[in-house]
Amino acid sequence: MDSIVQASRYAVVTGASSGIGRELAAILAREGYALVLVARRTEPMQALAEQLKQAHGTQCVVVGADLGKPEGVATVVREVKERGLEVEVLVNNAGFGLAGKFEELPAEQQAGMIDLNVRALTVLTRELVPGMVARRRGYVLNVASSAAFQPGPLMAVYYASKAYVLSFSAALYDELRGQGVKVTALCPGYTETEFAARASEHQRSRLFSGPLGRGDARQVAEQGYRALRRGKPVVVPGLMNRLGAWFAPLTPLPVLLRITRHFNSGES
Ligand SMILES: NC(=O)c1ccc[n+]([C@@H]2O[C@H](COP(=O)([O-])OP(=O)(O)OC[C@H]3O[C@@H](n4cnc5c(N)ncnc54)[C@H](OP(=O)(O)O)[C@@H]3O)[C@@H](O)[C@H]2O)c1
Q1: pLDDT tens digits, residue range 1-57?
Q2: Helices vs strands, H then E, count in the chain
Q3: Ligand 1: does its nearest atom lie under 6 Å from the Cβ of 193?
Q4: pLDDT tens digits, residue range 130-143?
């Protein structure tokens, strides 16, 4: 009986091919969820699916999709609907950043960041939340960032995209209260994943040498999952990151901009 019930509880995890998303998928498998794993690279997700099947008997659907494109998002929605999956957990984790001067970074990549970090996250949430509301049970974990708490010179679009994720998630948390659906924004600081390599394609930021510490992807994912279960609207892993989030709104803007610019500027 238990296994039948558990097999029908699905969690969709975007960005499951590496980093924090991969760890969140592993945690959800441990907790008994069947998974829909989404990213562009299918091989690492197939390997993960095999591993989770061995470890927990997890059923996985692997979806190769570019969520930076509307067709990619539509593919995921179609897979879920055509298979008739009841999605209890949505983890909007796929995302990337780019360090560098706004006017020098490739415009197409900047727009792609908004398409992935903002558009795909919003559309997937809009598609999957109504089913959760109808069943009066669901969880949405949106991966924002410690970058969400202040503007970020030299990573301007990335920081702004994460401010959107935090604001959107908190608003939704409130809207869905009392309807059985919990929404949490996970706001990690710098975490050891493939993120820094991709973000440094045009300029390496001082932040990635770890002056404020480096999070461990598994620990970040565990904290995100715990906060989701407890129905917390926001979780910021790591004391330094929590202090940063706490002090940012209290700090005069020119000072805040100088500090953030310092960490985002290239190492010399
Ligand atoms: N690491 C950090 O320091 C840090 C700090 C704060 C917040 N975050 C946030 O944490 C989230 C996860 O990042 P991570 O640190 O785990 O980095 P990561 O190791 O680079 O993982 C990013 C994931 O997103 C997927 N992805 C990227 N572009 C995609 C696209 N167009 N379509 C579908 N999937 C795509 C990647 O898979 P494919 O390449 O296979 O598509 C990968 O699975 C991101 O939202 C990031 O902004 C990271």
Answers
A1: 344 344 479 999 999 999 999 999 999 999 999 999 999 999 999 999 999 999 999
A2: 11, 7
A3: yes
A4: 999 999 999 999 99
Q: Is the CB of 25 under 6 A from ligand 1?
A: no
Domain residue ranges of the chain, discontinuous segments joined by +: 2-264
Q: Which helix (H) or strand (E) element contains residue 62?
A: strand 60-64
Integer angstrom CA distances of residue 73 from 65, 77, 103, 178: 7, 6, 29, 28
Q: What's the pTM value of the predicted model, to 2 decimals?
A: 0.96
Active site residues: 158
Q: Who contacts 180 (Cβ-Cβ below 8 Å, separation ≥6)?
A: 132, 133, 135, 136, 137, 138
CATH of the domain spanning 2-264: 3.40.50.720
CA of 59 to the centre of ligand 1 (A): 23
